[in-house]
């Protein structure tokens, strides 16, 4: 019996020992762990965090959502490190990993990540050139498009806000003008949450007004904006990356406490004050100048001049047309958002309302937006993400520009002060008889036009995307992405029969419907390989396939001949003559295989490379596919032992890249195809004729980009300094080349689009940012950037040719003006003089004999931004300046608005009145005021006289606010954020040409066309969070 007891003890001991061993074996067994890393400050996911197992060579990087997966054992130690954040270590527990919350290092400013459509990289190991603007920096700014807030924020990014029309298209250039085909062809590529969208072309079909395709984006929904500039950053976008890429990432939900936020802002707006030189003449000044012009002509008696003055109404009181067509505007915006979730599901949703009533008659924008971004972790290895953005826009825009008689701003200058806007009884003057009224289309009452014309557009947009992520194993991940951008536009344009541009047609009406559907799918594999035997040495590689299709549809009905007695009947069906009805489609497709790799050793040495095989329907059959690539390298000198012997520099990095990109936006959808159309009458039969010649070899414009830069951090990265030098060479510029008549295409088709031109942009970029002062109660943040760009043509289909008002020649800037050389005024008699030769050795009074010369250029050589934020115990003052230097700008209608030649057809500038020649011996640049036939009759025609210095500095934004969240009474109310502020835009502008008669911020081509001017806003607002 005892023997049996001993046996039982032995058996029990054996199984007990075995179970203990099994437990230890199980604990030592590797298991697959999934975790998430977020910022402790705001709960936002941190991409690119280094997660390693101490004592091993194993490690991974967190993905774009902060998630990571690796195989480890319970009890091992995980180390987390991230640039700009304090490192952290945890022991792996037996259960699930907690959410890792890294605290930011307040002494560091380099906590920047670069996120594009294909992944996320830490700035420290990034080999490319890119700039990042956080969305929080631009929230609540009173701008109708986010590009306005981008102005002056990043070196090398030139944003021209050349119209005060709310929602209008802005012109953006990154590192100069890289295409000469059209303004839209030179715009950068835009990407919203991974979706490549149309961002550079006007949405509207109507003439004289614009609506940006990006106007539906709510600034308050933007998490960050990344601008990609060099080949290492843009070559992955292949045939569409040549002009740079702007990547917009919207806000996403974060785990933890649900946050509710409400923002409200309202205020007033007004036109920027006219420069003294450009103010219209008062009635008394105009009357004097009118009489003087006729007297100086020597062709009229005093009685005749008096009679002329009476016929033109010079005996009436007069009015100020600029004041009549402009007004005080207003604007409001309201936003509410909810942000929250848990470890598995996170959500961000928002709704916004923005309205801006502009400072010109019948100009406004109303916008409603909604956003829903959802992230859900299905399992340890599988997650999904949903993006949904909807917007509805209603915009009304009058005809703009001096090409239209109905343009209110053009009318403000062209109408004489004695053409009265109102009758004596207060009604709008609609008389079309007599010089004192509005006898011609070119002399129309803008008040009547504003009351009767209709020019509206309704835009509805749905932008949605679905992403799935599958961690196949520790180092291999799959991402599937599908998105759609769908827009509809309903446009109505009615020009009345009484006055304006459609007067000769008895009124005109246009009804247009357009829709755009844009689909994109992407499949991508990401692999992380840790090189065995070498610590902190790894390769990140990605390979993928991407396809995109866009389909556009346009339906237009146009009619003329409206009943004059029924001005409210504006529909096309009410017209007597339905002139045209048409519909058209326009589609394009792209597809690509791409790959990208990054090699990193100890965060010290980085090498990168990308490749894309890209094809598209816009390219001719002879060259429908092309290859684009980039190589880049970076050396973080601060990782070297010798660097640690000094204490001034904290970080130091040298980087360089080279590669090729393309520009597909320089081509129209069917431009390479020979196209023909019906609708031509020939001998009473329906005939067909060629619309375009076509060219099967027509393809993208190609860009070769070189960049070298240095990044330095001083005093524990309290101060960061960046310098870049770049050289971009563009080949295959599309130009029209003459073809012989023998080709058989006839006189109407004598040219063919070919890839024959070339240009170059090279320059320098400088950025200084940091926190020069930081104490317990006070901090000062500063961001200073400047960029110098030199543009020149290097190859042309035909050298030394006149291109409108520009000189197109090798070694000249693309927008080089070509005009007659003005020599000033003869002091003896006040006659205008011009040079007869480019060397300026002799002069003439004959305008036709004057030499035309290249003179100045429209695009600026230097652009800069300077931002300061001062915070004293929650009182925050922010000042943003923008500067533009080294260009000339011109006035499209200078010959109407200067001198006496057209005294009966337009008002004049104050500079002309105050500086005109009146006395022998007087030295001035404004000739004698003469009406017709005099020796100065051409003195106001186009010449270098009307090319002005475009240099200016502008205080574009100033705000003063108080952060109340730390007050006890606020905390007791359960309020986590309470910020009150006042803001003003465009408060001050410094120009450097006293002759300049208009605001210096004009379109890229340098010409002022009397569009709606920029506005000044003064608003107050509050941000409340719970």
UniProtKB/TrEMBL annotation:
Signal peptide positions (record): 1-28
Domain TonB-dependent receptor-like beta-barrel residue range list: 414-894
PROSITE patterns: TONB_DEPENDENT_REC_3
Entry keyword set: Cell outer membrane, Membrane, Signal, TonB box, Transmembrane, Transmembrane beta strand, Transport
Residues of the TonB-dependent receptor plug domain: 123-245
Location, primary (coarse class): membrane
Subcellular location per the Swiss-Prot or TrEMBL entry: Cell outer membrane
Any one annotated GO CC term: cell outer membrane
Gene3D superfamilies: Carboxypeptidase-like, regulatory domain, TonB-dependent receptor, beta-barrel domain, TonB-dependent receptor, plug domain
Protein's membrane topology: Multi-pass membrane protein
Key word Cell division present: no
Family membership: Belongs to the TonB-dependent receptor family.
Protein name as it appears in the record: TonB-dependent receptor plug domain-containing protein
């Amino acid at each position: 019996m005892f023997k049996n007891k001993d046996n039982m003890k032995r058996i029990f001991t054996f199984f007990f020992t075995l179970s203990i061993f099994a437990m230890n074996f199980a604990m030592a067994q590797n298991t697959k762990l999934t975790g998430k890393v977020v910022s402790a400050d705001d709960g936002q996911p941190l991409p690119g965090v280094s997660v390693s197992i101490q004592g091993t060579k194993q490690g991974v990087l967190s993905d774009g959502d902060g998630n990571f997966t690796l195989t480890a054992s319970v009890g091992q130690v995980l180390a987390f490190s991230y640039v700009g954040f304090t490192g952290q270590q945890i022991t792996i527990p037996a259960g699930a990993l907690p959410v890792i919350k890294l605290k930011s290092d307040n002494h560091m400013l380099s906590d920047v990540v670069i996120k594009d459509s294909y992944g996320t990289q830490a700035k420290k190991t990034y080999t490319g050139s890119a700039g990042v603007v956080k969305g929080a920096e631009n929230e609540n700014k009173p701008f109708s498009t986010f590009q306005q807030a981008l102005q002056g924020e990043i070196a090398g990014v030139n944003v021209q806000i050349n119209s005060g029309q709310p929602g209008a298209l802005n012109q953006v250039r990154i590192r100069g003008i890289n295409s000469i085909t059209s303004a839209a062809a030179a715009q950068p590529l835009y990407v919203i949450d991974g979706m490549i969208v149309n961002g550079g072309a006007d949405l509207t079909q109507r003439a004289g007004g614009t609506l940006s395709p990006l106007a539906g984006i709510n600034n308050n929904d933007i998490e960050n904006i990344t601008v990609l500039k060099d080949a290492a950053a843009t070559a992955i976008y292949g045939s569409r990356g040549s002009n740079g890429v702007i990547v917009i990432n919207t806000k996403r939900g974060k785990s933890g406490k649900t946050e509710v936020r409400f923002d409200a802002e309202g205020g007033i707006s007004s036109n920027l004050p006219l420069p003294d030189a450009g103010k219209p003449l008062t009635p008394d000044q105009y009357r004097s100048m009118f009489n003087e012009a006729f007297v100086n002509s020597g062709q009229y008696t005093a009685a005749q001049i008096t009679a002329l003055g009476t016929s033109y109404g010079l005996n009436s009181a007069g009015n100020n047309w600029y004041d009549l067509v402009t007004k005080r505007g207003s604007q409001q915006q309201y936003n509410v958002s909810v942000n929250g979730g848990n470890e598995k599901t996170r959500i961000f949703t928002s709704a916004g309302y923005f309205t801006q009533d502009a400072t010109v008659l019948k100009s406004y924008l109303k916008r409603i937006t909604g956003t829903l971004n959802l992230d859900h972790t299905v399992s340890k290895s599988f997650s999904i993400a949903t993006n949904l953005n909807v917007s509805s826009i209603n915009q009304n825009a009058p005809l703009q520009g001096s090409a239209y008689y109905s343009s209110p701003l053009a009318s403000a200058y062209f109408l004489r002060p004695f053409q009265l806007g109102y009758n004596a009884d207060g009604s709008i003057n609609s008389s079309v008889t007599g010089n004192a009224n509005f006898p011609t289309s070119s002399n129309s009452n803008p008040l009547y036009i504003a009351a009767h014309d209709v020019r509206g557009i309704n835009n509805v947009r749905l932008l949605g995307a679905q992403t799935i992520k599958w961690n196949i194993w520790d180092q291999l991940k799959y991402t599937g992405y599908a998105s759609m951008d769908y827009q509809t536009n309903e446009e109505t344009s009615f020009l009345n029969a009484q006055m304006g541009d459609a007067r000769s047609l008895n009124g005109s009406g246009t009804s247009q419907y357009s829709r755009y559907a844009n689909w994109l799918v992407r499949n991508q594999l990401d692999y992380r390989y840790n090189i065995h035997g070498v610590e902190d040495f790894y390769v990140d590689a990605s390979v993928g396939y991407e396809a995109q299709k866009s389909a556009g549809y346009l339906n237009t009905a146009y009619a003329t001949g409206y009943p004059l007695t029924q001005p409210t009947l504006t529909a096309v069906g009410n017209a007597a003559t339905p002139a045209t009805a048409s519909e058209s489609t326009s589609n394009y497709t792209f597809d690509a295989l791409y790959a990208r790799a990054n090699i990193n050793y100890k965060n010290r040495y980085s090498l990168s490379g990308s490749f894309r095989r890209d094809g598209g329907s816009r390219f001719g059959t002879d060259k429908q596919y092309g290859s684009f690539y980039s190589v880049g390298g970076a050396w973080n000198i601060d990782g070297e032992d010798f660097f640690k012997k000094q204490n001034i520099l904290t970080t130091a990095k040298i980087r360089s890249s080279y590669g090729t990109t393309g520009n597909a936006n320089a081509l129209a959808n069917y431009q390479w195809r020979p196209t023909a159309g019906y609708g031509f009458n020939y001998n009473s039969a329906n005939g067909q004729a060629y619309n375009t010649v076509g060219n099967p070899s027509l393809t993208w414009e190609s860009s070769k980009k070189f960049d070298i830069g240095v990044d330095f951090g001083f005093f524990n990265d309290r101060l960061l300094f960046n310098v870049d030098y770049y050289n971009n060479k563009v080949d295959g510029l599309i130009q029209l080349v003459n073809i012989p008549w023998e080709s058989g295409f006839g006189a109407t088709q004598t040219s063919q689009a070919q890839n024959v031109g070339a240009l170059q942009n090279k320059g320098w970029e400088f950025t200084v940012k940091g926190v020069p002062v930081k104490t317990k109660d006070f901090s000062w943040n500063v961001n200073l950037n400047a960029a110098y760009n030199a543009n020149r043509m290097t190859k042309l289909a035909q050298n030394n040719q006149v291109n409108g008002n520009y000189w197109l020649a090798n070694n000249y800037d693309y927008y080089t003006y070509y005009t007659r050389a003005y020599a000033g005024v003869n002091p003896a008699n006040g006659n205008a003089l011009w040079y007869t030769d480019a060397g300026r050795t002799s002069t003439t009074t004959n305008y036709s004999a004057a030499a035309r010369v290249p003179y100045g250029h429209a695009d600026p050589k230097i652009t800069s931004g300077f931002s300061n934020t001062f915070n004293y115990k929650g009182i925050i003052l922010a000042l943003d300046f923008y500067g533009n230097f080294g260009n000339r700008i011109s006035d499209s209608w200078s010959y109407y608005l200067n001198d006496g030649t057209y005294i009966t057809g337009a008002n004049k500038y104050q500079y002309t009145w105050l500086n005109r020649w009146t006395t022998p011996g007087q030295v001035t640049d404004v000739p004698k005021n003469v009406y017709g036939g005099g020796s100065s009759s051409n003195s106001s025609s186009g010449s270098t006289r009307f090319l002005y210095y475009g240099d200016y500095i502008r205080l574009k934004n100033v705000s003063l606010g108080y952060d109340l969240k730390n007050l006890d009474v606020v905390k007791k109310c359960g309020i986590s954020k309470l910020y009150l502020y006042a803001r003003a835009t465009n408060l001050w502008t410094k120009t450097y040409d006293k002759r300049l008669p208009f605001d210096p911020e004009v379109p890229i081509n340098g010409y002022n066309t009397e569009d709606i001017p920029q506005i000044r806003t003064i608003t107050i607002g509050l941000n409340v969070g719970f």
